[in-house]
Amino acid sequence: MNATFIFETYLDWRQHQRFAIKKRSPALEMIVTEEDFQKAQRYGHDKSSFHFVSNFFSHAVSVVFLWYKLYPALWEWSGSVVEAYLGPDYEIVQSLVFVFSYYFISLVLSTPFSAYSTFVVEEKHGFNKTSLHTFLTDIVKQFGLVLFFGTIILPPFVWIIQWGGEHFYIYVWAFMFALQIFIITIFPTYIQPLFNKVEELEPGSLRTKIEALAQKTGFPLTKLFKIDGSKRSGHSNAYFYGFFKNKRIVLYDTLIEQSKEEEVVAVLGHELGHYFLNHTIQGLVISQINSFVIFYLYGFLIHNEDLYRTFGFSQNSVVISFFLFNFVSSPVSHVLQFAMNLWSRHNEFQADAFSADLGYSAELTSGLIKLQTSNLSTMSPDPWYSTYHYSHPPLVERLQAIKDRSTKIEKKQ
Description:
The chain is mainly alpha-helical. The protein has helices at residues 2-18, 26-29, 34-67, 70-85, 91-124, 132-163, 168-191, 205-217, 253-258, 261-276, 279-298, 305-310, 318-328, 330-374, 383-389, 395-412, and strands at residues 198-200, 221-227, 238-241, 247-252.
C-alpha cells in the first residue's frame, strides 16, 4: 500500500510540475490560444494541489485504521449491535451493519473535501453550477441508494459464498454478472433521473443530423436524449447505452451549447466507432474475465486464519475475508488498471479513425479542441503520468493521428 502510494505520488508530482510551464509547445500553438492554455494550466495546478492534500488525507486515514485496528473494532461493534437486538450468529446482518457503518464514516470524512472541490476549486474556474441544496440532496440520495442496493446485494452475495462450497467462485461470479447487467439496464431509466432531468432531444437540425448518421452507419438508434448536465457542472459529455438492437444516445446540454452541430455529430461518430469496433463488448468480456479470476483467487484466502489475525480480526467472515483480499491484492489491481488504460487509449485512436473514415476529420478535430478548451483539460501532460493514468490519449497525439488518417484517406481517393 505504501509503495503504491509513494509511486503514484511521485507521478502526481511530475504532473504538478508540468502546470508551471508558461509557454505552449509548437504543436499546441497551432491549436489553442495562449489564453486558453494559461486557463487550463491554472485549473490543472489548483486541482493538482488539492489532490495532494485529499490523497494524503485518504492514505493517512487508511494507515490509522490499520495501525489502530479500527477495522476489527468496527466489526466487533457491528456484532455487538446485532447481538443486542437479534442475538449472536447473524453474520449477514452484522455484515450489513459493518458495510453501512464504514460507508457512513467514509462519507463523513470525504464530504468536506468534495465540498471544497465543488464550491472552491470548480467554482473558481467557472465550472460549478451546483447549489448547496443540490449538493446535500445528492449526498442523501447516494446514501439511500447504497442502503437500498446494499441490502439487496450483500445478503445473497454472502449466502452464495457460504453455500457454494469449493466452487463458490463460479456461482458468485454468475450472480455478479447478472447483477451488473441488471444495473446497467435500470440505471438510465430509474437511477439517472434521480440526479438529472432526462428528456428527449427536441426536433430540429441536430436531431435530424444524428438520426441520419445512425441510418448511414446502421446504428440501431431507438431514442435520443438530452440531460441537464449544466445543473451541476460546466463540463460536457455524451454516451450511448442499451443492449442488442435497442441503443439510446444521451447528450449533455453543455456539449450542445459549447459545440457546433457538425462537431457534436463528429463526436458521436467517435462513440459509434466504439460500438461498431466491438470495444463495448470487449470491455464487458475483459471485465468478466477479471471478475472471475478475482473470485477464483479469493478462494485461496477465504479460510486463511493467519491473514485475519495479522489484521487484528478474531473471527472469520465472508465480508471481512473479501475486504482483506481486496486490500492485499490492491497492487495487482493497479497493474491491471494500467493495462486497461493502455487498451483504452488504443481503442480511442481506433474510434477517432472510425469517425474520420465517415468524413468527419475536420469536425472531429475542431470538436475535440473545443472539448479540451471548454473543459480546461490538461494541455501538456507529463509522459509518465499520462501513460500510467490516462484512459484517453493526450490531445496533441489524437489530433496528429486524425490528421494522418485524413491524409491516408485523401491519398486513397
